[in-house]
Amino acid sequence: MNGKRLFQSVAEQIADLIDEGSFPPGTRLPGERELAERLGVSRVTIREAEIALQAVGRLEIKTGSGVYVSDSQPENRAELPGASAFEVTEARLLVEAEAAALAAHNITDEGIATLEGLIEQMRTGSEEAANEADEQFHRTIAEASNNAAMVHTVQTLWRMREELPDVKATYEAVCVHDADSRTAEHEAIFFALRDRDPAGARNAMREHFHRLIEAMLDATERMALEEVQEQVSKSRERFTASAKIG
Predict the structure, then answer these.
(1) For a tag site, which of 5, 53, 110, 206 has the least CB within 10 Å?
(2) Mean pLDDT, the chain, as a whole number?
């Protein structure tokens, strides 16, 4: 998996412009097209960056009016707490299952189409494209919940997944082995959302994370066995050599 996504870098550039005073609090940002040309990215990337900045309180997106710099800017983001991959995944299970249930009530036809396209990208794209689609799939559901606190929490959990080294390593080990299962589970979530079935969406999301935890346990066991085997191999070489010398 890659580290920082393009929209995250763009979000940082926009945040820097806010901090420098180019976009003072309360002012309206330039339109997506203008910002896209200014920063050399697509309008979709600008939109994703703006959503990310809204989640942390830096921007306010007003439907039909535009995107505005928040009057009250938050302090710099606090450092992430230390947590294991299992703790992060447990928190994701609890939060994202309820986000999916809320999204089933609120998601638009456009949101459903977006999720369908992301699943296709997961199924047919490269590993990098599939990972990008996976992240965007979960973010899209959180945004469809229409709950800013939920969006912020999901964003933070994704930061923990990507920025905490041990968590990131565990997820990478799992992603190598579970591509088919991951796609099928996301399809189950999609079908429940398409049917506007809150209970079904909640259960499908829970099943996704329960299976992920099992895969993480298997990966952790596999890595532990490999470490033990490596230690045994080194010991065998050492003591066999010593025996020959004696």
Answers:
(1) 110
(2) 85
% residues pLDDT > 90 (the chain): 40
What residue type is 203 in one-letter code? N
In the block, tokens 């009530």 appear at: 105
**What is the number of alpha carbons within 13 Å of residue 210 lying toward its C-beta?**
7
Strand, helix or coil for residue 30: coil
Alpha-carbon gap, residue 90 to 82, rounded angstroms: 14
Q: Alpha helix (H) ranges present in 42-126?
A: 43-55, 85-106, 109-124
Strand partners, 62: 66
DSSP code of residue 60: E
Helix (H, G, I), strand (E, B) or coil at 107: coil
pLDDT of residue 1: 36
pTM confidence score? 0.62
Element (H, E) at 33: helix 32-39
Give pLDDT, residue 3. 40
What's the angle, vertex CA 201, arms to CA 198 and CA 206, rounded to 5? 125
Backbone phi and psi for residue 76, each to the nearest 5 degrees, phi listed first: -55, 145
Report the alpha-carbon angle 31-36-42, nearest 5.
120
Which residue bears the tokens 């870098």?
9
| Degrees, nearest 5: CA angle 136-178-205 | 50
Two structure tokens written together for 230: 């490596």
